[in-house]
């Protein structure tokens, strides 16, 4: 009797004879008359189609048979195991960099933004995850996208090494993460190519020919793998474009100088303008020391100070960008008001600036100025608080929702869609991106604001409350408030009133009715600020502290009605 395997009509190679019935069938033969020992598994890869030297050819299997698998090959199994190990390493590195966006581990501080290294780690993690999920469904489109991403990421690594500004900002974590992401993308493409070879090899050996058709499930895997690697390639392209912008922006020289602080870990930008000594007496000039609020000093307060010098209201002014703002490097976390005060003091000392000072500060910057004032009481001759933030309202800055939103925007910041659109469609310049309208979308800016949020209700609040207890009560004080802010927020008004009691020497509390929170953006606001500044310069420490005790009940002057 002779019989033919039911699959042989469709799958057998015409050059191979069909199996015939044996006159001495095996005891363990299956219903089709074939030995179960002849069924292939991963241990029979190197055996020929004749199993155990049987005198008859082996039957071909259906392509849908689970035994037809590239995992039969030791090479493919080794690549999968290695990919699993790389994926676990990628998870570990990604977790370390996530922690670094909240608390800086030793050796992982970067002067730019930790979000760039995290972005590269995320791309590596996504690439390896896609490679593992769809390991047995390689496709030409996925390999092409993986190679494109690898090329872009390799170019990023080269740019980070070649551009001095980028190299100093991102240091080794950024460069290593870019190299890691490029290697992961290249590995994914190489693995896909090898699995494709192994799949064809096993199909040829076990079914008689490579299978060119795909099932619906396989097409679904191909589509998902292509989409995942498409996201990686698109994100890599956006990151590369933003690195080009950053490299170009590095040519924008800062006014003033940048000084190394905190043991040479990062630099703070400091700018001073005007005569350091009085031409008539030779004494040191009382210098206006500006502290920005939610935005850098360069956005308006710098121009206000320049006009005040031209108008003769002051002779000299200085300002330092807080770490992470404008031309200053990012500082490691946590970064509180006390740390900011120490950083400013060190930068001023290295620049040879000694005061005396009149401190003018806005918004949240007023908290930093108050801490600085409490630690330099002998050198501070006056306080000008411009719509200042009260320490009791730090909960708004440190709310979990705001912190998470800043972190999420920071994670997306290396792609820089807003900055790219601003540069391409709106003609935004390098100055816009360094300190202007596009500044707030940079990874460094988002990181600095996240740092403020993380310690607002803990370290910073403690620093400010302590500073109030040791503030020199004889220091002349002026508070200028936004009328719009007071009308919109009753609690803000109560806290502005409380800040007028910061010292016993309140000179004035002015409310500029039509001014926004950035009071200097209105003409009335600038006029009031300059008027009060002129008085502080002229009359600093000229009043007897005891005579000012009665001024605690002074009603605010109102402007712009």
TrEMBL record:
The keyword Membrane applies. This is Integral membrane protein. Residues 1-39, 45-64, 538-561 are annotated as: Disordered. The chain crosses the membrane at residues 84-103, 115-137, 144-163, 175-195, 216-239. The keyword Membrane applies. It comes from Remersonia thermophila. Keywords: Membrane, Transmembrane, Transmembrane helix. Pfam families: DUF2417 (PF10329). InterPro entries: AB_hydrolase_fold, DUF2417.
């Amino acid at each position: 009797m002779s019989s033919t395997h039911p699959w042989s009509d469709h799958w057998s190679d015409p050059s191979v004879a069909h199996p015939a019935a044996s006159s001495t069938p095996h005891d363990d033969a299956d219903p089709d008359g074939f030995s179960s020992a002849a069924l292939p598994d991963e241990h029979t890869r190197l055996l020929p189609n004749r199993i155990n030297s049987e005198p008859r050819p082996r039957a071909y299997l259906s392509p849908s048979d689970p035994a037809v698998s590239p995992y039969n090959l030791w090479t493919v199994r080794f690549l999968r195991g290695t990919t699993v190990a790389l994926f676990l390493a990628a998870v570990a590195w990604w977790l370390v960099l996530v922690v670094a966006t909240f608390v800086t581990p030793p050796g992982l501080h970067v002067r730019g933004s930790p979000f760039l290294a995290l972005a590269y780690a995320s791309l590596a993690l996504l690439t390896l995850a896609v490679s593992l999920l769809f390991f047995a469904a390689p496709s030409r489109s996925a390999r092409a996208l993986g190679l494109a991403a690898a090329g872009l990421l390799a170019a990023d690594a080269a740019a980070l090494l070649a551009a001095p500004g980028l190299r100093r900002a991102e240091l080794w974590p950024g460069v290593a993460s870019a190299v890691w992401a490029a290697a992961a993308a290249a590995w994914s493409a190489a693995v896909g190519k090898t699995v494709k070879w192994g799949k064809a090899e096993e199909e040829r050996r076990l079914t008689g020919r490579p299978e060119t058709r795909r099932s619906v499930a396989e097409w679904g895997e191909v589509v998902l793998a292509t989409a995942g690697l498409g996201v990686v390639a698109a994100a890599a392209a956006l990151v590369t474009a933003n690195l080009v912008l950053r490299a170009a922006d590095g040519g924008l020289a800062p006014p003033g100088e940048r000084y190394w602080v905190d043991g040479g870990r990062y630099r703070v930008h400091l700018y001073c303008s005007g005569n350091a000594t009085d031409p008539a007496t030779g004494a040191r000039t009382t210098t206006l020391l500006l502290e920005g609020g939610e935005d850098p000093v360069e956005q308006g307060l710098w121009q206000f100070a320049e006009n005040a010098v031209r108008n003769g209201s002051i002779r000299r002014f200085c300002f330092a960008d807080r770490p992470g703002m404008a031309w200053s490097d990012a500082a490691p976390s946590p970064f509180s008001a006390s740390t900011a005060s120490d950083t400013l003091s060190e930068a001023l000392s290295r620049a040879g600036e000694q005061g005396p000072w009149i401190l003018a500060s806005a918004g949240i910057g007023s908290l930093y100025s108050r801490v600085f004032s409490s630690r330099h009481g002998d050198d501070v001759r006056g306080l000008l608080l411009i719509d200042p933030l009260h320490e009791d309202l730090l909960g708004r800055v440190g709310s979990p929702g705001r912190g998470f939103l800043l972190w999420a925007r920071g994670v997306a910041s290396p792609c820089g869609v807003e900055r790219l659109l601003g540069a391409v469609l709106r003609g935004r310049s390098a100055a816009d991106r360094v300190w202007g309208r596009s500044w707030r979308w940079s990874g460094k800016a988002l990181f600095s604001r996240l740092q403020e949020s993380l310690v607002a209700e803990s370290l910073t609040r403690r620093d400010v409350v302590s500073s109030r207890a040791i503030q020199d009560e004889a220091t002349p004080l002026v508070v200028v408030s936004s009328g719009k802010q007071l009308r919109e927020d009753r609690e803000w008004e109560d806290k502005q009133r409380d800040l007028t009691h910061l010292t016993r020497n309140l000179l004035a509390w002015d409310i500029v009715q039509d001014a926004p929170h950035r009071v200097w953006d209105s003409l009335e606001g600038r006029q009031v600020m300059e008027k009060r500044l002129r008085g502080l310069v002229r009359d600093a420490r000229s009043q007897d502290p005891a005579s000012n005790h009665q001024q605690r009940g002074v009603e605010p002057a109102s402007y712009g009605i």
